[in-house]
Design goal:
The complex is a heterotrimer of chains A (about 475), B (about 100) and C (about 475). Chain A has about 475 residues and is α/β, with parallel strands linked by helices. Helix content of chain A is about 35%, strand content about 15%. Chain A has helices at about 5-15, 20-40, 50-55, 100-110, 150-160, 175-180, 215-225, 270-285, 300-315, 335-345, 350-360, 365-385, 415-420, 425-430, 455-470, 480; strands spanning about 40-45, 70-75, 110-115, 165-170, 185, 205-210, 255-260, 290, 395, 435-440, 445-450. In chain A, helix 2 packs antiparallel against helix 3 (about 50-55), helix 9 crosses helix 11 and helix 9 (about 300-315) crosses helix 12 (about 365-385). Chain B has helices at about 5-15, 20-40, 45-50, 75-80, and strands spanning about 65, 85-90, 90-95. The longest helix of chain B is centred in the first third of the chain and has 18 residues, at about 20-40. Chain B is flat and about 55 Å long. Chain C folds into three domains: about 5-290, no CATH class; about 295-410, no CATH class; about 420-475, Arc Repressor Mutant, subunit A (Orthogonal Bundle), CATH 1.10.10.410. Chain C contains 16 helices and 16 strands. Chain C has helices at about 40-45, 55-65, 165-180, 220-240, 285-295, 300-310, 315-320, 325-335, 340-360, 370-380, 385-400, 405-410, 420-430, 435-440, 445-455, 465-475; strands spanning about 5-15, 50-55, 75, 80, 90-95, 100-110, 115-125, 130-135, 140-145, 150-155, 190-200, 210-215, 245-250, 255-265, 275, 280. An eight-stranded mixed β-sheet of chain C has the order 6-7-10-1-11-12-13-14. In chain C, strands 5-4-15 form a three-stranded antiparallel β-sheet, with no helix packed on it. A two-stranded antiparallel ribbon of chain C has the order 3-16. In chain C, strand 13 and strand 14 form a beta hairpin. In chain C, helix 3 runs antiparallel to helix 4 (about 220-240), helix 8 (about 325-335) runs parallel beside helix 10 and helix 13 crosses helix 16 (about 465-475). The chains are: A alpha/beta (about 475), B mainly alpha (about 100), C alpha+beta (about 475). At the B-C interface, strand 1, helix 4 and strand 3 of B face helix 1, strand 2, helix 2, strand 8 and strand 9 of C.
Chain lengths: ~475, ~100, ~475
């Protein structure tokens, strides 16, 4: 048993007493100890995880798959009593007074929190190089980025340090790192998973979801975290269906849409080929494939890079050094305190986005920028609604490239933004989407994105699962993870 | 659309960010590039097609949510102040606020 | 020089009388120890989210309807962004372009004339925290108990033409809010606050002059004083041929002057945008109707009805409708007596004096409107004299017993039996021949003395009208 085993296998092992929960926690600690000095996925490893694991041992039951299973959280989800920083210096040492709903639900399900994972500061980035503390590296190639902003989560799962992790996705921050690291990443429909306790980046786009090795594991984790939360007014009043029951392996008659807008010139040839092959496989399985059009895709990035920074400029205004977080030491008057605290506490990408967002909302520019972006958003939603009249799932590359080199795009924010072209429209429309591995090129994984109808995670998971089973690739193991004994 | 150094300073002041002389020019250029990209939203074709289009400000499909007016627990006093960078007698301390 | 007209608009904040805050379940309590009613939402903790209090919404809608606003089926919350230590999220959740109420009005009485003051809008928002300042002026302290207390802001049209009208408008707003049980509106506790915009223009000119905004007028008296001061100040500036500077001013009660807080150049850019954490407010017609049904008869309607139905003078109607409790007290009393004016007299005289001295509210006293009406009816049917009734009312207020019980206990029933009174009068006249002679000699005062003797004999229980008549008859008959 290792953390490339499925959750079902780990659960069966615990039931059969092949291992105990504290042994699994120990195993996770060993993997972290032997690998994380190279990968740098964790910001914080929980001191009492083994003790917490021990507590679950007495209650492990047939139906409680997550009992005793180790996991980790992206560090933008609040954990009571455990430092939560969003990989920002401004929150260094911050101990939340409460836990995020997802953390509570996983805790109730018996999962054991191993620690908190690195990310781009406040989830702003696509490479985890914007972490205020250190970059995370891709377990497939340590010279490459793991993607972002949930780079720590993708890397930790890919390297087998934990069997699953939770990330957050505002413009692709679960799916793109999942693609880069060869794992499954699910962004649920907006409102399916509570955002209570998720440190906000862009509130109308943020959504929490799982990173796992298989689609079934994603379904299991989603089952544990989905559903109405009274503490989040945007949480949908939906009874989560049985997601695993949807994994029938049967996609006969299913209609798959291919949008040319997602296969533009920025998509590398290797990625294009892998995705084309995956579509052919789905066709072999009995799905029908037809072209669709999402005509407003070209405006999605512009709209996103106004809406997300605008909301962020407001969401991040609270970091002022008054009630929590780090206050600049040499502040004179109040204004000085605000400016020094925020200028030294935030990294350059965060500051850049705050400035763009502030500008987009400021007097005289609101109508031309923010309001227009919100209108474009309506058109993009409508594009998808129209497309879903004739297809059940839309398939595309998750990212136009495989993992790029550290430092390659860090000085070119706009190019970095452009790498999110396939994922961003999905957030603007609030839809569910999943990235599953569909190949490895030059030692780097490629991700296949599937987009579903609002709250139709079942169909999405069914297609992803059928593809995964037929492709026979999962779980992918990077070379780094194979050389490690645990 | 291009931003001047003055624009950068104005926006930075609104956002309570200090921008050094050295940063001003670089930020003016970076932000101008990003905004120039965003300015494709101002192309005539798009603007024409946006006439009368509703804004999507809320992703939420749930309708209005309210809670009953029933008191719950507040945080214990020591927890409220636990993360405070500077505090005195159960209050957060800040440099003097001039009335305004 | 041309005559100037004063133009005033008021922005009134009213704290809604909920048990908990608008977006979290922390209790609302005035005067609690600092930061004792605070949770992650109040702290603006990373990841905390707001959830709307249904009662805050209901009271806000009720208030908007009571102010004759139209309440749209949909409205929304926006974020008003500004940095200040009393604002933990660095934005206030408020409403910008789609408030819960618009286009309302109220009426005030100015010099006996009714005047309508337009209400531009009513919107819901959260209160900010409280700043306390070190006496040394080097630091300030932040208390977040008040953060998130639900408020409505009521913005008037610039229809107010004098400082007195401003005070009357504010008093009327308070009465309406109190009648509707929306708020207790205690200015001294800050549950009613008022900022004003004021400008001057030549009479007949349509365009407004340059305005100033005045803050910190924290009593009805100060609202009037502050605006009177500012009106004088602006008049002086214009008389010198100078221009008014657009500024925000702070009323300083101690010196009776306004001080500059900030000038136009420092005006905020609040960068309003829809709050993505709060879905739009969607109200059904049935919901709005239910809120409308909660609105009781309002003070203006009640004043009018008291004048019409009970024939009260306008002054009485005004005094009696000062609070809903008092008005209902009077209403219930007046319905049960023959002469409503006498009910008004008793309440405005004896009862209000007692309340003031005892520092009690009308709903805190022993005597119910039914008991007071019983007392008044005893006077009306001649069972007791007005004088005895006065004493009785004091006993009723102290003991909580009703008039009939006290009368029985103290044997206070008025003697109206003519035969009995005639017998006593004969004794009195016989015992005071000199006084009788004085009266006959034309000394009118002597009659009073005789009546006084009668009252003394009967310990005040003799019916004064009958006593007068009997004595006069006996004196005349004895000639």
């Amino acid at each position: 048993m290792d953390f490339f085993s499925s959750l079902q296998e780990l659960h069966a092992g615990l039931l059969k007493r092949e291992a105990t929960a504290s042994e699994l926690a120990d195993l996770s600690l060993q993997r972290i100890a032997s690998l994380d000095d190279r990968v740098h996925a964790f910001l914080h490893v929980s001191a009492d995880c083994v003790a917490a694991a021990k507590e679950t041992e007495t209650v492990i039951g047939q139906e409680r798959i997550l009992d005793g299973i180790p996991y980790a959280l992206k560090d933008n989800m609040c954990t009571r009593g455990i430092e939560t920083t969003c990989a920002s210096h401004i929150l260094k040492g911050y101990i939340p007074p409460y836990s995020a709903t997802v953390a509570e639900r996983l805790n109730d399900a018996g999962a054991v929190l191993m620690g908190k994972l690195n990310m781009d500061e406040f989830a702003m980035g696509s490479s985890t190089e914007n972490s205020g503390f250190f970059p995370t590296r891709n377990p497939w190639n340590l010279e490459r980025v793991p993607g972002g902003s949930s780079g720590g989560a993708a890397a930790a799962v890919a390297a087998g340090m934990v069997p699953f992790a939770l990330g957050s996705d505002t413009g692709g921050s679960i799916r793109q790192p999942a693609a880069f690291c060869g794992v499954v990443g699910l962004k649920p429909s907006y409102g399916l998973v509570s955002r209570f306790g998720l440190v906000a980046f862009a509130s109308s786009l943020d959504q929490i979801g799982p990173l796992t090795h298989t689609v079934e594991d994603a379904a299991i984790v989603l089952q544990a975290i989905a559903g109405k939360d009274e503490r989040d007014s945007t949480s949908a009043n939906i009874q989560a269906p049985d997601y695993r029951a949807a994994l029938t392996g049967d996609v006969r008659g299913l209609r798959i849409g291919i949008a040319s807008e997602y296969f533009g010139p920025s998509v590398e040839i290797g990625v294009r080929n892998a995705v084309t092959k995956a579509i052919a496989l789905l066709e072999q399985l009995g799905a029908t494939v037809s072209p669709i059009s999402l005509p407003h895709t070209e405006y999605a990035l512009s709209a996103y890079y106004l809406i997300a920074p605008a909301e962020a400029s407001s969401n991040l205004a609270r970091y002022d050094g008054v009630r929590y977080g780090v206050r600049a030491v040499d502040a004179g008057n109040l204004l000085d305190m605000y400016e020094k605290t925020r200028s030294t506490g935030f990294g350059s990408e965060v500051k850049r986005r705050i400035l763009i967002g502030t500008y987009a909302l400021s007097s005289g520019y609101y109508d031309d920028y923010y309001k227009r972006a919100q209108q474009v958003r309506t058109l993009i939603r409508q594009d998808f609604l129209d497309a879903f009249e004739s297809v059940d799932v839309i398939v595309s590359p998750t990212a136009p490239t495989t993992a790029f080199r550290l430092g390659e795009k860090v000085h070119d924010p706009l190019t970095m933004y452009l790498s999110d072209i396939c994922t961003i429209p999905v957030n603007l429309a609030g839809l569910p989407a999943i990235s599953v591995p569909c190949g490895v090129i030059d030692g780097l994984p490629v991700g296949l994105q599937m987009i579903g109808r609002m709250f139709d995670e079942q169909t999405l998971l069914r297609v992803a699962h059928a593809y995964e089973q037929a492709a026979g690739m999962a779980p992918l193991r990077p070379a780094l993870a194979m050389g490690v004994k645990a | 659309m291009s931003l001047s150094r003055k624009d950068v300073l104005h926006v930075a002041a609104l956002a309570r960010l200090h921008v050094t002389d050295a940063e001003q020019e670089a930020l003016a250029q970076e932000l101008s590039r990003i905004l120039a990209y965003a300015a494709q939203l101002n192309t005539l074709d798009l603007v024409a097609s946006l006439a009368g289009v509703e804004v999507t400000s809320h992703m939420s499909v749930s309708s209005m949510v309210t809670r009953p007016d029933a008191p719950g627990e507040s945080l214990p006093p020591e927890v409220v102040m636990a993360n405070a960078p500077d505090a005195e007698e159960q209050q957060f301390r800040v440099p003097a606020v001039l009335e305004g | 020089m041309t005559a100037l007209e004063t133009v005033i608009g008021l922005e009134v904040h009213v704290e809604l009388g909920t048990k908990t805050k608008i977006f979290c379940s922390c209790a609302v309590e005035f005067g609690a120890p600092p930061n004792s009613h605070v949770c992650p939402v109040c702290l603006g903790s990373p990841g905390a989210l707001p959830v709307l209090n249904e009662q805050a919404l209901a009271l806000g809608i009720r208030a908007a309807l009571a102010l004759n606003c139209s309440v749209p089926a949909q409205s929304k919350f926006d974020r008003k962004n500004y940095f200040y230590p009393d604002s933990p999220k660095a934005y206030q959740i408020s409403q910008y372009d789609e408030p819960i109420g618009q286009h309302g009005f109220i009426e005030i009485a100015v010099g006996g004339e009714k005047k309508r003051i337009g209400i531009t809008r009513v919107h819901l928002e959260e209160d900010a925290g409280k700043l306390n300042h070190s006496p040394y002026g080097d630091v300030s302290f932040v208390d977040l108990n008040r953060v998130g207390i639900p408020l409505i802001e009521i913005v008037s049209e610039p229809d107010i033409r004098s400082a007195e009208e401003a005070r009357l408008y504010l008093e009327e707003i308070r009465s309406i809010m109190q009648y509707c049980l929306v708020s207790e509106c205690r200015m001294e506790e800050g549950s009613l606050r008022c900022d004003a915009n004021i400008s001057l223009r030549p009479v007949g000119q349509r365009e407004f002059g340059t305005k100033t905004e005045i803050k910190n007028m924290n009593s009805f008296r100060n609202v009037q004083r502050g605006l009177e001061y500012e009106q004088e100040r602006q008049t002086g500036i214009l008389a010198r041929g100078e221009n008014i500077a657009q500024q925000t001013l702070r009323w300083d009660e101690a010196t009776g002057t306004t001080l500059v807080m900030r000038s136009k150049e420092d005006a905020h850019d609040y960068r309003y945008f829809p709050d993505p954490d709060l879905p739009r407010i969607v109200l059904s017609a049935a919901y709005i109707d239910a809120r409308r049904d909660e609105i009781p008869e309002l003070p203006a309607q009640m004043r009018e009805r008291f004048e019409r139905e009970y024939g009260l003078p306008a002054y009485d109607a005004g005094v009696l409708t000062a609070s809903r409790g008092l008005a209902e007290y009077f209403d219930q009393t007046a319905q049960r007596v023959r002469d409503p004016k006498s009910a008004s007299n008793w309440i405005m005289g004896e009862l209000l004096a007692y309340l003031k001295a005892a520092m009690l509210e009308i709903d805190e006293i022993h005597v119910t409107p039914f008991a007071l009406a019983d007392l008044i009816r005893l006077i009306e049917d001649g069972t007791i004299s007005a004088k005895i009734a006065k004493t009785l009312l004091k006993d009723m207020l102290d003991s909580g017993k009703d008039a009939k019980t006290l009368i029985a206990e103290q044997g206070l029933i008025q003697i109206s039996d003519e035969g009995e009174l005639r017998a006593i009068a004969l004794r009195v006249l016989a015992a005071n021949p000199k006084t009788v002679d004085d009266y006959r000699a034309g000394k009118e005062k002597a009659l009073g003395s005789l009546v006084g003797q009668m009252m003394k004999e009967t310990r005040g229980k003799a019916n004064p009208q009958i006593v007068n008549r009997v004595i006069l008859e006996l004196i005349a008959g004895g000639e």
